[in-house]
Structure formats: C-alpha cells, structure tokens
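Researcher: Please translate sequence to structure tokens.
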Amino acid sequence: MKRALVTGGSGAIGAAICLELARQGLHVVVHTHRHPETARNIVEEIVRAGGSASVTHFDVTDGEAARHALKAILENGPVQVLVNNAGVHDDAPMAGMRPEQWQDVIAVSLHGFFNVTQPLLLPMIGTRWGRVISISSLAGVLGNRGQANYAAAKAGLHGASRSLALELASRGVTVNVVAPGIIATPMIERAFKPAQIEALVPMKRAGIPQEVAHLIAFLASEHASYISGQVIGINGGIG
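Model: Translation complete:
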C-alpha cells in the first residue's frame, strides 16, 4: 500500500483530499498543527469507511520539529505521495502590512514546503515512484489586492516545484502545483456573498473541496505519470 502525507489535512480542502486519497487505496497520514481533534475525526472517518490512516502533529515552519516527525513516519516506510496543502492567510494592503504578516504567511507556505518535502525525497526516489503536489492559489497566478504576502508565497511554490520537477523527472517522481480559485470553505463563505461569486466566476458558482480532491487524486495516480512541472488551475474559468 502506497502512503500519502497531506499537510494541513484538518482544513476543508485538506480533509477532502485525505478522504479521496484513502478511497483510492492509499494509507493517508493526516497532518495538523492546531486542530488535532479534527484530524483524528478524519482518520476515524477513513477507517470506518474501510480505509487506512494515521495522524501526525507538528508545525511545518519548525524545521527541527518537521524532521523529527517525518523521521518517525519514515520508520514505517517511504511516503510516495506528498500533498503540501498547509497555508495561512493574514491579509492587509502592503502599505499597512506588518513585517510578521509577511514573514508568517511565507513561512507556512514556502518554508513549510522545504521543511516537509526535502526529508521525504531520498526515500521517495529510492522507490522510483512518487508524487509531490502542492496547493497554491489563483492569487499566486494573478495576484490579489491585500494578499501580496500570500501571492508571493504561492508564486514561490510554482518556481520551486518547476525546479524540483526537473531534478526528479528521471527518477519516476512527478512534481505539480494545483491552484484553486474560489472554493466553498467556511473562510470563503465569510468573505464572499453569492452575488460576488456569480460576478467573479464565469461558471457562476464556487467550486467545492471535493472537486479539488478529485484533481489531486488524479495527479497522485498512475494515470498522471507524464504530467510534471505544471501549475494547474481549478477556478471555474477565471483567468
């Protein structure tokens, strides 16, 4: 059984990804930092449905903590599917943005990418099969007012992933980025009224987490073996 690690697995999109990967027959390690109870509930749901899952709990911005937790995970075998989903918002116009707002958002999305991905690569390469998939955002492609920090972090993932894809192309490991647009999560529901979504999205609706999860599951499958170094939008036709 292949093993997957999903960072930020306790959020709405992360949970949908965990559940879908488990349905595809992978053992899923559900990562969380601040919501261990939610992560345990996701694991229980997966197990009740006949799947296999476990929880890991660490701060992706803490390189030492990440290495310690990942070492324990690797004792049970390599992780062959990694989904870098952890990310945070702390929005403000740049003219009024505090230094910690800039640093903290970039630390989770971009430093977290390195802290989690790098320790898993050699064991993954050793199997001659792997998938590294990072969750970006439409903001990382087009930019967004009040989100210079978030857009910078996500755009950084694009460059890092394209470079890593070149490094691993001959090793049986693909590296891709998925960039969702407006997806129906509690945060989006607080930020956008239905009329705003209808005006912004050509498909006239928000996406749902399961639609993102289906795309991730495809990229994690054998069917996506010739797709690497790509930033794939899932946004209802924006852009």
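Researcher: Any highlights?
Model: The chain has nine helices and seven strands.
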